[in-house]
């Protein structure tokens, strides 16, 4: 199977401007496959308030992510691993890559 066609190729992280009007900021993360990325780049209206990040395949069968938070007084490292296998197409793409944002 070609990962670019069936799996995640990138993530778009942005601030939802509709929630800003309510006095809060909601950060949204969208995982995209190649078809969704093409639509995003060529046909979707964007506010240019986010980050488009390439997805890097995990060395294991399950997706994991490392999150680091640091301040002048603290340094915290966390890792999370999804319970679904990346090649399990019975599970939605979003659920296969979810780590800190929720999901399996």
What does this structure look like?
By secondary structure, the chain is an alpha+beta fold. Helix content is 22%, strand content 38%. The protein is built from 4 helices and 5 strands, in the order αβαβαβββα. It has helices at 3-6, 17-20, 34-43, 93-97; strands spanning 10-16, 26-32, 50-54, 62-70, 75-85. Strands 2-1-3 form a 3-stranded antiparallel β-sheet. The two termini are 23 Å apart.
For the structure shown, list the relevant keywords:
104 residues; alpha+beta; 3-stranded antiparallel β-sheet; two-stranded antiparallel sheet; disordered N terminus
Topology:
Elements: H1 3-6, E1 10-16, H2 17-20, E2 26-32, H3 34-43, E3 50-54, E4 62-70, E5 75-85, H4 93-97
Concise structural overview:
The chain is of the alpha+beta class and about 100 residues long. The chain is about 20% helix and about 40% strand. The strands form two sheets. The protein has a three-stranded antiparallel β-sheet with strand order 2-1-3.
């Amino acid at each position: 199977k070609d990962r670019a066609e069936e799996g995640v190729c990138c993530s778009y992280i942005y601030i939802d401007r509709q929630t800003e009007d309510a006095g809060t900021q909601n950060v949204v993360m969208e995982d995209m496959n190649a078809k969704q990325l093409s639509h995003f780049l060529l046909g979707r209206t964007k506010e240019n308030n986010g980050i488009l990040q390439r997805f890097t395949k995990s060395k294991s069968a399950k997706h994991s992510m490392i999150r680091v938070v640091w301040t002048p007084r603290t340094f915290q490292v966390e890792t999370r691993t999804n319970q679904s296998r990346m090649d399990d197409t019975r599970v939605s793409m979003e659920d296969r890559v979810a780590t800190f944002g929720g999901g399996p």
